[in-house]
Amino acid sequence: MKNFPVGIFPAFARSLAIALAPVLIAHAPAIAQVKYPTGPIELVVTFAPGGAADSAGRSVAPYLSKYLGVPVVVKNVPPPRTGEDIFSRSKPDGYTIGVMAGAAVASDEVFFKVRFRGREFAWIATNAATPGVIFANAKGPIQKFEDLAKVAAQRPIKIGAFSIYSSTTVATIVALEEKKIPYAFVTGFKGAAPAMTSLIRGEIDIVGTTLGSGSAFYKSGDARAVLLIQSEPDPQVPDAPTVDQVGLSPSSGYLGPVVFALVAPPGTSKEIRDILAAAHKKAIDDPMYRAQLVKVGFTLSYVPPEKVQQWVNNIYDAFEKVKPVVEAHVKRSSP
To answer: How far, CA to CA in Å, does 96 sit from each of 39, 72, 135, 157?
Structure first.
């Protein structure tokens, strides 16, 4: 029997194992892969039907369904329930997701005692943006921004708001405070759509909300845009002046457009997040989805997964900046 040098077989075995590794891996059972999704997904919107948040969620849901291969069903959880809190305690299995405005999540946490931590949500990527607008009744006495001061000389401006802490309402407060225009809030609305309806009825003077929420009223001619709450013009509201054009300081704390993002509950695994991100990116690239966004008053806004957490952090920082102004108003208004 022929003798082989010691060490030949171990070395040969190692070489063979290295050579065959790709083949073995390719034919091995995919036990480490996440089998997701296998059933319907619930997409949470934390506002009532008819507003910008609802439009943002319902616009992307069919395309997520298309690229995930399962039904994606929108569920509205409007105030006074705290949708973010309910969402934060959802099982992180990918079958509850949401479309939320980063500003809405941040404002709830900055101004209220809540049990959730929005920075800890599994933010996937952004998809849609809509500018903040101050709307007035097209048939009322406020036809342009300067008319606010004229009406306020007789009585405080009545502002309709579902929350004085929403980003667009906060921006409205900052604008009127800077111009020293007296105002009072009419609250209790369950969303921007009911507030806009009240505006058209002549029950209030203005509503600070998003173009997405006021788009139908604006396009019908029932509402007039008297201020675009950002420094850059927007072709969707060509008749609305920007904060710069009416002499407001851009550094006063205007938060810019309201941007929506796909989000999952805290603790959602990277594997599930990656699957959601891939389907979401396919939706973003779908021409039909882009056309739908424009139809409902949005523009495409894509912050990818690797940058979305910094986007969230920036929003929180912006709300912390304007918090003293808003709290001063609340203190003055308290009995």
So the answer is: 11, 10, 34, 41
Q: Which two tokens stand for residue 331?
A: 């203190």
Instruction: Strands of the chain (E only): list them.
Output: 41-45, 72-76, 96-101, 122-130, 132-137, 157-160, 183-186, 206-210, 223-228, 258-264, 299-300
Q: Radius of gyration of the chain from Cα atoms? A: 25
* Lookup: tokens for 73: 């069903």
DSSP 118-151: GGGSEEEEEEEEE-EEEEEETTSS--STTHHHHH
Which residue has tokens 């001061």?
A: 149
Pairing of the two strands 122-130 and 258-264: antiparallel
Q: What is the Cα–Cα distance from 259 to 302, expressed in whole angstroms?
A: 9
N residues, the chain: 335
Tokens at 274, concatenated: 């990656």
Q: Give the separation between CA 316 and CA 41, rounded to whole angstroms.
A: 28
Adjacent-strand bridge partners of 44:
75, 98
Query: What 3 state SS string does 210-233 have?
Result: EHHHHHHHHHCCCEEEEEECCCCC
Compute the distance between CA of residue 88 and CA of residue 90 in angstroms, rounded to an integer. 6
Specify whether the CB–CB gap between 217 and 200 falls below 8 A.
yes
Q: For residue 137, report the phi and psi dihedrals to the nearest 5 degrees.
A: -65, 125
- Specify the pTM: 0.77
pLDDT one digit per residue (tens) for the chain, 335 residues = 445 454 444 454 455 455 545 544 444 444 357 899 999 999 999 988 888 889 999 999 999 999 999 999 999 998 756 789 889 999 999 999 999 999 989 988 998 888 899 999 999 999 999 899 999 999 999 999 999 999 999 999 999 987 788 888 888 988 998 999 999 999 888 778 899 999 999 999 999 998 988 989 999 999 999 999 988 899 989 999 999 999 988 666 666 788 999 999 999 999 999 999 999 999 999 999 999 998 888 999 999 999 999 999 999 998 888 888 888 877 776 55
| Alpha-carbon dihedral 254, 260, 266, 271, rounded to 10 degrees | -140
